[in-house]
Fold:
Amino acid sequence: MGSHNSTQDILPGTLDLLILRTLALGPRHGYGIAERLRQVSDDVLQVGESSLYPALQRLLLNGWVKAEWGASENNRRARYYTLTAAGRKQLAAEREQLTRMIEAIQKVLRMA
Amino acid sequence: MGFGLVRILRRAAFRLRRAQLSRDLSEELDFHRLLKEQQHLRNGLSAQAAGNLSKQQMGNMTLAREDSRELWSFVKLERLFQDLRYATRIFVRAPLFTAIAALSLALGIGGNAAMFSLVNTLLVRPLPYFQPQRLIRVTGIYPRAAVQFFQQRSRGMDVAAVSTPSELNLTARGEAIRVSGSAVSASLLSVLGVSVARGRNFEAGEDSPGRDGIVILSDSLWRHAFGADPTIVGSSITLNGVHRQVIGVMPPDFSFPSANVQLWFPMRLDSSNFLEYWAGEFVPLIGRLRPGAAILQAQSEIRTLVSQFRRTFPYPMARDWNSDAAAIPLQQDLVGDVRRKLILLLSSVSMVLLIACVNIASLLLSRATARRKEIALRAALGAGRARIIRQLLTESVFLALIGGSAGVLVGTGALSIFKSVLPSSLPGLARAAIDWNVVAAVAALALFAGLAFGIAPALSASQIDLTDALKTGSQRGTGGVWTRLRSWLIAAQVALTLVLVVGAGLLIKSLYRLSEADPGFEPRGILTVRMSPNQSLCIERPACIALYARLAKQAEELPGVAGASVANTVPLDGNLPTLAVDVEGHPKSADYPAPMLWAGAVSPEFFRMLHIPLLAGREFARSDGAKSEPVLLISASTARRFWPVENPVGKHIKPAGSRQWRTVVGVVGDVRQYTLSQGLPTWVAGAIYMPYAQSTLGDGQIPASMTLLVRAADSARLRSELRRLAEDQNPDIPVGGVQPLEEIVSGSISAFRSTIQLFISFAGVALLLAAMGIYGLVSYWVSQRTYEIGLRMAIGATRRCILRMVLAQSFRITLCGIAGGIVAALALTRFLASLLYEVGATDPWTLLTVAVLILAVAFTASCVPAWRAAQTDPTKSLRIE
Structure:
């Protein structure tokens, strides 16, 4: 079945950040986001649909992305998600927060 | 915060489009799976394998859907609505239970809402005057001379006087009407801090002779008698024959000193008029604390001033006259002894509410047990204990709120009933209404009640063993802490009910004793009609004497009339004519001031008509006229008091201001003149009667207002004839309605009777609730023990045996409740003591009767379920298990 480093291994709450970062590069549909994450992380980050779509709904509720129906590559209807201005701000904020967290953890791990 | 609001709005928008969003999500998930499948195909799998793999890899789609859906709804809110909808379904399916519960609550909460409103208006809400906490009443009553004395010498307060309202003749536009009016000092309005709505207030000094020919009207009098005439200020009216100019109209809800007062005129302070200034009516004093003064200051000042004032009296006053004068807050004075009655009513109503809550708690407990299967099912489907408890509590709070809203309606009705029991003269009584404060209090009460009686059943029901409940689906066993709790609840209910019913019983017995009490006269078969001319008509004594002699003679000649007489007052009509007297052989001194006697002015036939017995000497005769030797009749208790061993006939008494002694010619039986329970007030030493032609009031004049009594059968025709006869005597004289004497007598205890009726209804409601409670409890027991009963019958118990068993258990609980109730009753009924007449607060017969009554009610309530138990078919009940 392949290695399943699913999102349970990721720090909770970072899924939102990852999705926002992916969408910063341009609008994508749900499958596209999951694929991109898998590709860029060399198969480490594999987001399941049961976490992805609720996360997207949450982002919609908070107003950080917006969704539109459009035509996909194979001419079927697909829902494309776009980052909003508020989303961009949230991305920057969460990114900084996570960076700080990781630095702190690294300091602890490095300590003698 | 702004972010939160936007989120909520967005969520609401999602909620509205939930169905569409759900479809969108399905389409999206489908698309996702399709792309996955295409990917697998590209990787080389077969079409079928690709399809299966992609489906497997999709993960938990249901979870995705559920989690997404949560974001499209207000989860907590929707769960609440879900619970409410379910609760409604349950209530509709069990209409009897819902009706009983809602009704009990409505009665309990409604009664309490009405009481809240009354207590709030009368006891809690401050008086509607400026800075009401600085208003005080000086206890005791004072002659008019005291008003100026206090006003000039008091440093801590501004003083004003208000006389008790009296009936006056008002002549304005043609006919004369009787109104209630109060003489007040000119400073009253400024002391209270209120002002007229039209015209002007009294000015300082307008209570001196020459400037006091003015009057202020009440708003209701202005509207009803003068048609809200805007030109009323400045016009002239005639009050008891005296012309007065209207200078103002008070605002609508001004009701000082009582709600019945319709006009205020200055109290004439004329030091040259000895009788009026020093010996006339004594009035209460009120005051406003000056800025910087405290009530303790006023207190000590009053003591000093009273003792100084006493020394200025031109005649000896008792050494301890008003020595206990104190300053009390005005609000306390106005509400006074009604406070005790209010608190009594409040406690009783709270008890009824408590009983209702206990009832419902007990009902809910049994229903919770009956629903065990359903609740177990919920638990099996995944509901946690907290969720189940929340659902059950939602149900009970919902029920409580239903009961509460019905209670507001009941409360409005109850409030008007309560108001009729309290004296209508109470200022501010009319203002009591169910307003938003009360509704809020009711809602809070309902919420609290719902939680209180819902918590026990919720806890009990959620505590289940899943497999056991689902498997058998039966309700085995009678033990368990909750069942015992239920039994104790019912016992407590019985105890509370006993207390209320005992209270009602004691009051009923008092009423019975009161109605059996011998009032000293025979009221049956007498009609009365009152005439109230101005005192000015009787300045010439012969005019009035002739008037009433003529009236009596003409009345006697009417067909159907067997006798007629006149009197200045009939017993129990509320008048209290008193006279300070000198008694032969009892000289006055500072320690023995002039006694006050009740003074009747009657025509000779009076005693015979009312069957008042003559105990010694002779009655009045026609020969006892204006020019003959002045004579008196005294009552038996007066004779006993002043001449306990000697023969009173031949002794002398005279009015304190007069010089001529009057001879006692006879002794008549005691009559309960003022109240049916007491007779005369304690400060009145006895009663004397004078022939009308020789009679005198305190100021030396002959009484002008008299009542005509005729012995005849009551009929509408006779009533109108009597009235016309009275009116024909003189068109300027206001004539009251024709009333049978019996009506006057029963009217004197009407307030007492209303109070009793109220108590009886409380007791009745409590009894009903207790019966329902016992019925519920016994049914529950029986349903719990169906198996056991079947078993007993199978091994030989007869139906009667089963019946006895169930009834015995019910009796055990009832007896516990009765025992507890008797203890509580012995402790609590002393608070009723002031209302009781010739009945002890711990009267054993009443206790016994009530105990038996409650046993009977319990028996009746237990009968039906017990009989049903005895009808159990053992084969069926044993097979259920």
